[in-house]
Amino acid sequence: MSGELDLIERLRALPLHPGARNLDDDAAVLQIGGETLVLTHDMLIEGVHTAPGQDAADVAWKLVATNLSDLAAKGARPVGVLIGFTRGGDDDRFVAGLEEALSHFAVPLLGGDTVAGGPPRSHGLTAIGRATHVPVPARSGARPGDAVWVTGILGAALAGYEAFLAGDRPRADAYLRPRPLVEEGIALAPVATAMMDVSDGLLLDAWRMARASGASFALDSAAAPVALPEGRRDEALRWGDDYQLLFTLPAGIAPPLRATRIGAVTRREGDAALILDGESIESPDGLGYNH
Amino acid sequence: MSGELDLIERLRALPLHPGARNLDDDAAVLQIGGETLVLTHDMLIEGVHTAPGQDAADVAWKLVATNLSDLAAKGARPVGVLIGFTRGGDDDRFVAGLEEALSHFAVPLLGGDTVAGGPPRSHGLTAIGRATHVPVPARSGARPGDAVWVTGILGAALAGYEAFLAGDRPRADAYLRPRPLVEEGIALAPVATAMMDVSDGLLLDAWRMARASGASFALDSAAAPVALPEGRRDEALRWGDDYQLLFTLPAGIAPPLRATRIGAVTRREGDAALILDGESIESPDGLGYNH
Hints:
2 copies of one chain form a homodimer. By secondary structure, chain A is an alpha+beta fold. The first copy, chain A, folds into 2 domains: 2-131, CATH 3.30.1330.10; 147-281, Phosphoribosyl-aminoimidazole Synthetase, Chain A, domain 2, CATH 3.90.650.10. In chain A, 28% of the residues lie in helices and 27% in strands. Chain A has 8 helices and 12 strands. Chain A has a 7-stranded mixed sheet, with helices on both faces. A 5-stranded mixed sheet of chain A has the order 1-2-5-3-4, with helices on one face. In chain A, α2 runs parallel beside α6 (182-188). Chains A and B meet through α1, β1, β2, β3 and α3 of A and α1, β1, β2, β3 and α3 of B. Chains A, B: Residues 25-130 form the PurM-like N-terminal domain. Chains A, B: Keywords: ATP-binding, Kinase, Magnesium, Metal-binding, Nucleotide-binding, Thiamine biosynthesis, Transferase. Chains A, B: One of its GO terms (molecular function) is thiamine-phosphate kinase activity. Chains A, B: Mg(2+) 1 binds at residues 42, 113. Chains A, B: ATP binds at residues 112-113, 139, 199.
């Protein structure tokens, strides 16, 4: 992954807008008139971010959902999306899934581009949202003494993925059709000191949040609710695609929704951004899904 | 191209934002906080929109320039861009070209995504601009009696493409490194009744503008300035990539910059959106570059 990190460092050295706070991580924040906009752009490449045989309608849904999840982590209410994709054999299903997702989340299409090209098919989506609380939560705001919380149940997407591989489509929804936690993000934005969505695995994303905050996260892996048998708890914490919200609150503040306290923010000592069940972890390798 | 048109019709049937005026054609217009934003998203696919052996730095430049050209056609001043691209072997050149373009046009990077995937490599860019004049010019505003104008010289990109194929890189800039006419678009926005950038060939884009306006354009092909020998005038008017501005003005109004009057808007009779040198043209086939 060092090539990826080098590239991101180089992109960060470009002329950046002041709102481009964490390229390739956080969504951008833009002041326009009296409003604060949040903008994010994510891509899905066939065969890299999709499983063989995945219905193009599910791909379209996931593309919408993952971008809205980035807005959710900022407490932003979606305003609209721009879509770009390569045309191919299953455009009908792709557009059907796009329609389902946009209708379900009540987000209008603003525009976009369709082009010839591929395989592999390539899909990109830009989502624009309106911040509901300023300052907009960032992943960099966790402070020593804060508690670390997560919504929902982890590993549900992994269980869904395994159901998908087994041909059990009805049980595969957690993987194929994630739900961005837009209302939850809006409820948390005024109280969270830091927030992000868990897209690449709880441990990796916690490592990233701790690092962005210049702190360490001391996590109790047994505290996190998981969707898998106890013997697979570790997998559930390292697999991505759950799109739950990871956030920090000052000690003694209860979250305004159902969530689980999984640890505490501590002062950073050395390189260990993560202290997992008492063990210092100094590298993100193996903590989750890098893509 | 009927597959493409069907697809666009289907996208237009999705829940559209009121600002999504012409999906896959015009940029979107969004009212936010007392300001009017213009948003556009274009993709470039390796091998489809790029020539074999094209430097990735030139691909990055073109990706930025073509999106800024869409903003220029709306009289919008660029605010920032979000980039998405597949990582590959020549990332260094791609990022170098991105940096050159963003610096040259003084546009900051807001964020984006880089992913594994390809070949072919896929690149998408979302550009956000601030409208300088409201109502924002659209391609649908041409009225019978207006004059039809175009900036610059057509076919320069075709000449540049041929220079590129001949290995004459210094003369290939018009093809490889187009210049979006941002200041020209801003100057024209208050006076133009309709405006668009010429990306797919003058005749095809004029046909589209006439059609969007529910009118016909009667064009004098000899009037348009071309960069090629007279015997190749027809090619110059059908080749894309010039990114000049095509616009209409009420009769008797002179444009505030150097431009050429190439015809007049007339009432539509039948299906002929274009009347070229007196000949009615009822189909866009062969008028330019569909992609």
